[in-house]
Amino acid sequence: MSQFTDAYSRRFYYLRLSITDVCNFRCTYCLPDGYKPQGVSNKSFLTLDEIRRITRAFAAAGTEKVRLTGGEPSLRRDFTDIIAAVRENNAIRQIAVTTNGYRMARDVKQWRDAGLTSINVSVDSLDARQFHAITGQDKFHQVMAGIDAAFDAGFEKVKVNSVLMRDLNSRSLSTFLEWIRRRPIQLRFIELMETGDGGALFRQQHISGEVIRDQLIMQGWQRQLRERSDGPAQVFRHPDYQGEIGLIMPYEKDFCASCNRLRVSAIGNLHLCLFGDGGVPLRDLLASDDQQAALQARIARSLGEKKQTHFLNQGNTGITQNLSFIGG
Question: What is the reported pLDDT for 170?
Answer without folding.
Answer: 57
